[in-house]
């Protein structure tokens, strides 16, 4: 927390922390509930209640999900539906969930029944809500027993969707996997490269004694793949659920874009709040006041503040004084629009 106090862009830190926090909750990789809540509490003390609102919602949603899964098991037993898998769902509200982008992927047939059963249970319990599956952060464990040793693989949803296809056929082309899994081709190629890197899958020509030239390392739609029945690892529990390069890059771009948009709205909301309280201010005084109030969250750019003032002038939240062009007057309104307040609170 000592370093946190010296961060200039606390809003960007909040966005990144929220995504990592959500992943820890979904992947169950956090040390303890106490450690997560303790960190959030310290950030609240350093900044404000609004700063940690989303993080606290995530913790609350994760806690509710534990009770929800217990209720789901009772529900499944009550309708004589035995869930063969250790199926667990983490239900997060859209207001707290920090990820917006999602990739397409068909739910594997082995998981379809459990997913549909949970969907029916949840929608029956909350008729006014809609569930959306986020496969990008979903994961599971697979037992690989095609070798002399049985391995437990911790895999992403995309990796599971690919590997489970080989329960029905020995070989698949890249195009066949694309059609059977419903994964976008660019995402599928990255998933296949990761499975080839872990040596869980191999090219059929390679297993037959073909050479691994640079050209052969490229995956084409007609490239034939199979499970590596000679797979060997010192560990019996293997974590292959690693972030894809494109996924990391997309998240970085999304974080930067989200932070920039949030700053714009935050600056506008701050200007409105200041002008509502002060009624009339010179340009330099308004800029200085905005800089002072937002310094705990981030260091706003003066040009961005000027742009925010121009937007509010166009929307007639404020107006220039007729006698003094560098003086702004607050235009009385019934209420501040919700989009300004809501964005600032988040």
Walkthrough of the structure:
The chain has three domains: 2-131, no CATH class; 138-239, Ribosomal Protein S5, domain 2 (2-Layer Sandwich); 248-345, Arc Repressor Mutant, subunit A (Orthogonal Bundle), CATH 1.10.10. Helix content is 51%, strand content 10%. It is built from 13 helices and nine strands. It has helices spanning 2-5, 10-27, 33-46, 53-78, 109-125, 157-163, 174-181, 185-197, 204-207, 245-278, 283-294, 302-314, 338-345, and strands at 139-144, 151-156, 171-173, 201-203, 224-227, 237-239, 280-282, 318-320, 327-330. A three-stranded mixed sheet has the order 1-2-6. Mean pLDDT is 85; it is low at 335-346. GO terms for molecular function: ubiquitin protein ligase binding. InterPro entries: Cullin, Cullin-like_AB, Cullin_CS, Cullin_homology, Cullin_homology_sf, Cullin_N, Cullin_neddylation_domain, WH-like_DNA-bd_sf. One of its GO terms (cellular component) is cullin-RING ubiquitin ligase complex.
What value does the average pLDDT take?
Answer: 85
Number of strands: 9
Could you say how many structural domains there are in total? 3
Q: Number of helix segments?
A: 13
Distance between the termini: 22 Å
Any idea what the radius of gyration is?
26 Å
Tell me the structural class: mainly alpha
Keywords: Isopeptide bond, Ubl conjugation
Protein name: Cullin family profile domain-containing protein
Domain Cullin family profile: 1-196
GO cellular component, one term: cullin-RING ubiquitin ligase complex
């Amino acid at each position: 927390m000592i370093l946190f106090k010296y961060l200039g862009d606390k809003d960007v830190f909040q966005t990144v922390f929220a995504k990592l926090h959500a992943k820890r909750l979904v992947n169950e990789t956090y040390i303890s509930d106490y450690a997560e809540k303790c960190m959030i509490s310290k950030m609240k003390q350093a900044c404000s209640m609004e700063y940690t609102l989303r993080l606290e919602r995530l913790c609350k949603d994760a806690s509710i999900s534990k009770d929800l899964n217990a209720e789901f098991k009772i529900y499944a037993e009550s309708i004589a539906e035995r869930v063969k898998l250790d199926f667990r769902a983490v239900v997060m509200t859209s207001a707290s969930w920090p990820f917006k982008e999602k990739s397409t992927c068909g739910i594997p047939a082995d998981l379809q029944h459990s997913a549909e059963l949970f969907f029916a249970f949840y929608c029956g319990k909350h008729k006014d809500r809609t569930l959306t599956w986020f496969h990008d952060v979903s994961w599971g464990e697979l037992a690989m027993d095609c070798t002399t040793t049985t391995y437990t693989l911790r895999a992403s949803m995309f990796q599971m969707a690919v590997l489970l296809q080989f329960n029905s056929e020995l070989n698949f082309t890249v195009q066949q996997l694309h059609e059977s899994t419903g994964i976008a081709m660019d995402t599928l190629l990255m998933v296949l490269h990761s499975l080839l890197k872990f040596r869980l899958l191999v090219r059929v020509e390679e297993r037959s004694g073909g050479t691994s030239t640079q050209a052969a390392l490229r995956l084409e739609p007609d490239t034939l793949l199979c499970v590596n029945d000679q797979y060997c690892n010192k560990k019996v529990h293997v974590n292959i659920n690693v972030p894809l390069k494109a996924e990391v890059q997309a998240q970085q771009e999304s974080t930067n874009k989200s932070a920039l948009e949030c700053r714009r709205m935050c600056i506008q909301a701050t200007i409105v709040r200041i002008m509502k309280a002060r009624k009339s201010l010179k340009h330099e005084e308004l800029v200085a006041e905005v800089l002072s109030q937002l310094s705990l969250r981030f260091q706003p750019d003066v040009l961005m503040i000027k742009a925010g003032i121009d937007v509010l002038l166009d929307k007639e939240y404020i107006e220039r004084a007729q006698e003094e062009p560098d003086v702004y007057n607050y235009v009385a309104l019934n209420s501040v629009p919700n989009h300004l307040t809501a964005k600032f609170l988040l």
